[in-house]
Write a structure and sequence with these properties.
alpha/beta, 2 domains, 20% strand
Amino acid sequence: MNIRYKFLSLICLLTWGYGAYAQTGTLEEKADSNGYIVFDGDKAPDFVATLTDGQQVRLSDLRGKLVMIQFTASWCGVCRKEMPFIESDIWQKHKDDPNFVLIGIDRDEPIDKVKAFAQKTGITYPLALDPGADIYAKYALRQSGITRNILIDRDGKIIKRTRLFNQEEFQSLVNTIDKYLSK
């Protein structure tokens, strides 16, 4: 092997290695300004969650339905403000639609606290447990805050993400759900 071939091989290897590194990067580098590491158009990361009634739900088993995930916790004041609107403007309107699923995912709290939280906020939509915030970490930086809503289409792709509770953004979420379910 001549020196020129070895040199060109080394350059190609280094270029490929840098390209692979640059494409992966860290989660912090990938995240948007709201801490999301998933984006509209992405396939939603799959997970299995246990609801407060003991049932297990696998996201991929819900394909064919419009799925809304809400990340929440009892210590989150913004969540407590938003949840009654999710209950009245989304859940009560669409809970009987077989093409719609709404799951609140409580970030790293024990089941007794999650059940008390649901009762105190007056919500009736299903809540799931997320020990260690491992489901949350598939969607956003672990250290980033909640409340967050993610809307996933029938093919398992993310079509809308919200962060915090802003009336205009929330109404846009409601409108997207209404429009999608009317198809």
